[in-house]
Write a structure and sequence with these properties.
Layout (H helix, E strand, L loop, with lengths): L2 H6 L18 H11 L5 H9 L3 H10 L2 H11 L7 H4 L2 H9 L3 H9 L3 H8 L4 H10 L2 H10 L7 H4 L6 E3 L4 H10 L10 E5 L5 E6 H6 L6 H4 L7 E2 L4 H11 L3 E5 L5 E6 H19 L11 H28 L1 H6 L2 H29 L8 H31 L2 H31 L4 H28 L2
Parallel strand pairs: 1-2, 4-5
Antiparallel strand pairs: 2-3, 5-6
Helix pairs in contact: 4-5, 8-10, 9-11, 16-17, 17-23, 18-23, 20-21, 20-22, 20-23, 21-22, 22-23
């Protein structure tokens, strides 16, 4: 590669697809890098091109260049690859990469990680792969991961990191600062609070690191400890942990076992990942999917989506049965066949809006038994007002289109009825499913679609049969 080429080969070169700050690797860089893979003599150029990238940028490159080339890039970078790269990658992709890498290379990468990140990657591997990799890890990392695997999936115990800063309550600020300087190599890279413990290792308070720096050396740690601290039981669901962090404005929190003894700490960077994961999970569930399957093979993805589509087929048949009841009516007035999808479609969209608000409210604890009736009532009123507005619009359009004021009035009334039902159903169905112990993000859309389709078709065709035939 010439000097001019090296100058142009910039990973952050802005293009039309990026924001003005270029926070992602440019598509042009990815294309140029892929061209280098086609040359057997370009390994060093690839290494030079990627060696200065951040861990997040290398992860983005790996996820975009294709699986085989990703393995080749990891091999090219060798010991220069930052273990944090794998933290930024999709877990499905990491699993595939680890399964195709030598066990010692995988162990070397995992040994460099924080225990919580290492556990997050290993827990997705099958049992045989876990056993092989655990045997090659350092004793400290192996013990931390084996302990973590004993906690429930998606719990605080899986989320926490074991590396933390805890000091006895009788220490002074001076002794604490001296300890931090001496033990700096065994401390976590980043920490926000110093956890205060009693002789039995029970958490008795927390002191923000900034308070330590501002205090006099002679002050006792116990006197600086905050009264309002939040120890989290290891079995707590990660969604509840994220809710606590958001509500209390926490940056870190200690994790305790059944005996209330300190065993780990959760920091806000872990919670950002949890919030992102939970948000993606709920979004996918609304579409009847448990995963994006972006890095799964075709057959796996096909099977995973088949069952949800089968359920939707059943609901579509239910709506078709309602239409079949009015077959004679439709034959006499062809305009009904043209107009009836409008009523059902508007109801489905209005219901989805209400459902999305309700599911989010349940997830963030903003919607509960205490205010459910108010939220549902509000959505009914919103549905009625929008129904009236759109009834006027579609009524006028129908009148001008088919020269029938009666048909315009009927579709307008059907629109109002269906949007009221959509508002009620969209808000009520998630609440009801939640009280029954079912996941509203998964099941709500099926019931909602059935209700709005059936009511929409029945109201429109039923009114037409009663007043026009």
């Amino acid at each position: 590669m010439s000097d001019n080429d090296q100058t142009e080969f910039q990973p952050k070169e802005p293009d039309e697809h990026e924001g003005e700050h270029g926070f992602t690797v440019s598509d042009d860089f990815i294309r140029r890098l892929q061209d280098l893979f086609d040359s057997a003599e370009a390994r060093e150029e690839i290494r030079i091109a990627c060696i200065e990238l951040s861990a997040a940028d290398v992860a983005e490159v790996i996820s975009k260049i294709g699986f085989d080339r990703a393995l080749e890039l990891i091999d090219i970078l060798g010991e220069d690859i930052d273990a944090e790269v794998f933290v930024y990658l999709d877990n499905d992709l990491v699993t595939r990469l680890f399964e195709n890498m030598p066990d010692w290379d995988v162990a070397s990468i995992i040994n460099q990680m924080e225990s919580d990140d290492a556990l997050d990657l290993i827990e997705d591997l099958d049992e045989e792969a876990q056993t092989k990799i655990l045997k090659t890890l350092s004793s400290k990392m192996r013990a931390a991961i084996e302990e973590g695997l004993t906690f429930p999936e998606d719990s605080a115990g899986r989320l926490m990191q074991r590396s933390l800063v805890a000091v006895p309550q009788f220490w002074t600020v001076g002794k604490t600062l001296d300890y931090l300087r001496v033990a700096k190599n065994s401390l976590p890279d980043d920490f926000y609070d110093i956890i205060v413990v009693d002789p039995m290792h029970h958490v008795v308070g927390e002191v923000p690191a900034g308070h330590i720096l501002k205090a006099q050396r002679t002050e006792r740690i116990a006197d600086l400890a905050l009264d309002n601290f939040h120890p989290i039981p290891a079995g707590t669901d990660q969604e509840e942990v994220a809710h606590m962090f958001r509500r209390e404005g926490l940056v870190s929190a200690p994790v305790v076992n059944e005996d209330n003894r300190l065993i780990g700490v959760i920091t806000v960077d872990d919670i950002v990942d949890v919030i992102d994961e939970e948000a993606q999970e709920d979004l996918l569930k609304l579409a009847g999917m448990s995963d994006t399957h972006l890095y799964k093979d075709v057959l796996y993805t096909t099977r995973a989506r088949f069952y949800w589509l089968l359920v939707n087929l059943m609901t579509a048949i239910a709506a078709s049965v309602v239409i079949g009841l009015f077959e004679g009516t439709i034959q006499q007035i062809v305009a009904l066949a043209i107009l009836m999808p409008i009523v059902a479609s508007m109801g489905g969209n209005a219901g989805t809006q209400a459902m999305t608000v309700a599911v989010r409210g349940l997830a963030t604890k903003e919607l509960s038994k205490a205010n459910a009736h108010k939220i549902i009532g509000k959505e009914v009123v919103v549905g009625a007002l929008n129904g009236i507005s759109f009834a006027i619009i579609i009524g006028l359009v129908t009148w001008l289109w088919f020269h029938s004021a009666a048909l315009g009035l009927i579709i307008g009334v059907a629109m109002v009825l269906n949007l009221i039902v959509a508002g009620f159903s969209g808000a009520a169905i998630p609440v009801i499913l939640d009280r029954l112990g079912l996941d509203p993000a998964v099941s709500s859309s099926v019931f909602l679609t059935t209700v709005t389709d059936v009511i929409g078709f029945f109201a429109f065709l039923g009114l037409a049969a009663a007043f026009l035939i």
